[in-house]
Batch of 2 targets.
Target 1
Amino acid sequence: MSLPIVTVVAPGSPAARAGLQPGDEVLTLNGQVPRDIIEWRLLIDEAEVDLEIRRGNVELSVEVAKSDGEPMGAEVESALFDRVRTCDNHCEFCFIYQLPKGLRKSLYLKDDDYRLSFLYGNFTTLTRFTEADLERVVDERLSPLHVSIHATDPDIRSRMLRNARGGMSLRWLRALLDHGITVHGQIVVCPGVNDGAVLDDTLAGVLDQSPDLASIACVPLGLSRFNAEAAMREHTMQEANAVVDTVHDWQEMFLRVVGHRMVFAADEYYLMTDRPFPEAVTYAGFDMHEDGIGMARTFAMEFSGEVDTPVGPQSGFFAWVDGAPAAGYRAPRNPAGDTSLRGCSSSGGNVLLRPRASAPVGILTGEFGAKVLRPLIDDLRRDDVRVIAVRNEFFGGNTAVAGLLVGEDLLRALQEEPIGHRYLLPDVCLSEGRFLDGTTVDSLPRSVEVVPTNGIALRRALGAAESMVVTP
Ligand code: SF4
C-alpha cells in the first residue's frame, strides 16, 4: 500500500487555504485510508475534509473547509494507492508476453483490475472478480466497465485464458448487467481459435445471455516478432474478410432483436481487407472509439471539418501504466499545448530547430495510419505535404498502428528524410514524453512537432503553422 502524495494544490482553493502542500503524504481522509482515486474523490466530496498528513518526518492534521461537492483543489500522484490487481491468466495471445526484454518494468505489468477498467477503459476478464467487488461497483456506480469476452463457450474461454476460472467468470458479467452497470465487451479474434464458427457461437451466446451489453469490439490478434506461441498467427485475407462478414451479419441480427448493432470490427480489419470503413451513423456514438472502432471514420470527419471537437481520446497502447495521472488517461498527453515543436540539432544537442512555416511537411505515422491519411492528404491537393509510413521493425509481426511507433524506427525513417522540412508526429506514440522503447523525441535526428492524434489538430498543424506553440 502506498500513500496518496499531493502533487498539485490549486492557488486559492480550499486545499490551499487549509495549508495543504505538494509533497504531503496523506495518511487518512476523514479517518479512512483511501485505496484509490475513486475513494479519494468520494471522500473529498464532503463539506469538511479532515486529513492526517505526513510532511517530511512530521505528522499533521489539516482541516479543509468547503461546501458540499466543491472541488478541494488538490491532485494526487497515482490512481491506485493499494496494489494493482494483477491478472492470473496466461493467454497465448497476450501482447505483454510478446514484448522484447529490457523495456521499462511498468510495461510488463499484467493488470486485471476492475478499477482500471472504470478509470482507464482497460479490459478485465473478471477471473479475479469477487462478491465484494460487485458490491463496490454497484454501490459506487462504477460504470461503464470493459470486459474481455473472447468466447462465451466456457471451455474455449478457459483454454484461451489458460485459466480454469475463465469459463465461470462470465457469470459476473451477468451480475453486473443485472445491476444496471454498463459494460462494453471485447473479443480478441485469434484465427483458428475463436473465429469462424466459434465467433458465431460467441455472438449467439451474447444475444442469448447478455443482450443488454452496450457493445462488443472484435479486434484482431496483435503479434510481435517476439511471439513464442506456435498457434498464434496473423489472419489470412480470407479469414479477415470472414470476420468482417460475420460482424456485419450479426449487426443486422442485433439491430432487429435488441435495437442496436452491438458488435463492431476494429478499423484494422477494414485496413487489412481494403474494405471501405462503415458510415459514421453505423457506429452509434463511437462508444468504443478508443478501442480502435471507428477511429479512421472520426479522424476523417475531424480533418474535413465535419465536426469541430475531437470525437474521443486516443489512449494508445499501455497508456495507463506510465501516463496515468490521477486525472486519468484523458489528461492531455502534450501538456505544453495543442502542438509543440521538439527535437534536437544535428549535432545531437537539445537545440530547437524551427523549420520555416512554409517548409514542406512530412506526417509521420504507422503503416495503418498511412493508409487512413493518404486519401485525406490527397484531397488537399497540396504537393508540399506527404505521409511518411514508418515500418515497425522494433515490434515487427503485424504491428502497424501509430500507437506502437517507437523512437528507434522513427530515427531510421527520419535519417532518410531531408533537413529543413517540418515533421509532424502523433502524440499517441508518446507516454509522459517517452516512446515505448524508452527513447524521447530529443534522440530523433530531425525536429518534430508533436501533434494531438486527431484530425482537427492535424488540420491546424498543416494550416496554421505560425500559431504553433514552441516548447523548449
Ligand atoms: S488477461 Fe490480458 S494481461 Fe492477462 S494474460 Fe490475458 S491478455 Fe495478458
Target 2
Amino acid sequence: MVTRTALGRDLAELGWDERFAAEAEGAPGDAFPARVVAEQRGAYRIAGAGGELWASPAGRVRRAATGATELPAVGDWVLARARPEGDRATILRVLPRRSAFARRAAGRDTAQVVAANVDLVLIVTSLNRELNVRRLERYLTLAWNSGAAPAIVLSKADLCADPAPAVEEVARVARGVPLHVTSVRDGRGLDALRAHIAPGRTLVLLGSSGVGKSTLVNVIAGSAVQEVGDTLADDRGRHTTTTRQMIFVPGGGMIIDTPGMREVGLVGDEDALARAFDDVADVAARCRFSDCRHAGEPGCAVADSLATGALPAERWESYVKLRQELALQAERDDPLLARAAKARTRSVHRGQKDLYRQRRR
Ligand SMILES: Nc1nc2c(ncn2[C@@H]2O[C@H](COP(=O)(O)OP(=O)(O)OP(=O)(O)O)[C@@H](O)[C@H]2O)c(=O)[nH]1
Ligand SMILES: [Mg+2]
Ligand SMILES: [Zn+2]
C-alpha cells in the first residue's frame, strides 16, 4: 500500500493513526489511504500523501451501502485507487468511523452523516437571535450520539448587551459542556476556540445559517478561505455555505465547515439522550422503582422534582418528546422492531376481534 509519495502531505497531520492503519491492513497493493475533504453532488475530494484529487465510490461500494450513512462523508478515511487517467480515483472502501455526526435531513426519513471522524463538535448559536435551548438540546443529543465531544459557541457577543443570562440559560441544558462566548468584532473567546485546534485533530462547526460559522473558520485559519454572508443578510439564513468542506489550519488541525441546518432530526439511542439530559437521568435514577414510568407511581423522584421545580417542566417535556421521537425512528429504522410493533398492533386487533366474537356469542 502506498502511504507516502514525493508530494506527500503527512498522513498523521490528516488524522491518520495506527488504528486506521490496522483497519487498512490487507488492502490491495495499489490502494492508498486518503481523507474525504469535500463532497459535491456525489463526487468526493480526497486528500492523501500524494495530494488531492476527485474520487467516486466503486460500484461495489455503492451497491453494498444499505443507506446513505454507509457512503463516504466528509472526514471519512477511505482506501482509494488511482484511475488510469491519473487525475481521478476510485474509492474502494470506507474505513470504520471513530465518530460520526449524523442527523435526519430536512424532508427525509433517512439519516445522513454530516461529518465523520471528528474529535470535537462545535455547536454554534448566535447571541443576537433568540436563543433556542430546545434546538440546542437536539444538537447536544446528536453530538453525544456522534462519539465526539461537544462544545458550544455563543457567537456575535458584540451584538448582545449582556451575554450573562443567555450563558446561564445554556449552561442549564448543557451541564459540563464547554461554552465559548465569541465575537470576531472584538476578538472575545477566539483564543479559547483556537486552543481546540491541534495537528491531527478535527473539529466540525454546526448550526443554523448566518450564525457565523464560516466567519469563525476564516478567523481561525487566518485567511478568507470560506465565503461569508454579507452583513445585510446577517442572521437571515442566506445559506451562504452550500457544501461541507474540510479546511486545513496553518500549523496543523482541521475544521469542517457545514451549510446551515434547517432541521435537526434526531438519530441515536437512549444513551445519547441520557447524556444530553444527564440532569433528568440523575433524577429518574432516584425513583423508588427501577422501571418507574414516571406516570404516577409512588416514590417517583421525577414527580417530586417537577413539583418542587428542581426539574423544570419544559426540560422534562422536552426529554419526553425527544425520547418518543427516537423510539419512533428506531422502529422505522429497524425492520425487526417495526415488525414487532406491527405484530403487537395486530395481536391487539386480533384480541379485540376475539372479544367482539365472544360478546356476539
Ligand atoms: N457582529 C458580528 N457579526 C458577525 C460575527 N460573526 C459573523 N458575523 C456576521 O454574520 C454574517 C453571517 O456569517 P457567516 O459566517 O456567513 O455565517 P454561517 O454560519 O457560515 O452561515 P451559512 O454559511 O449560511 O450557514 C456575516 O455577515 C458575518 O460578518 C460576530 O462575531 N459579530
Ligand atoms: Mg457558512
Ligand atoms: Zn419515576
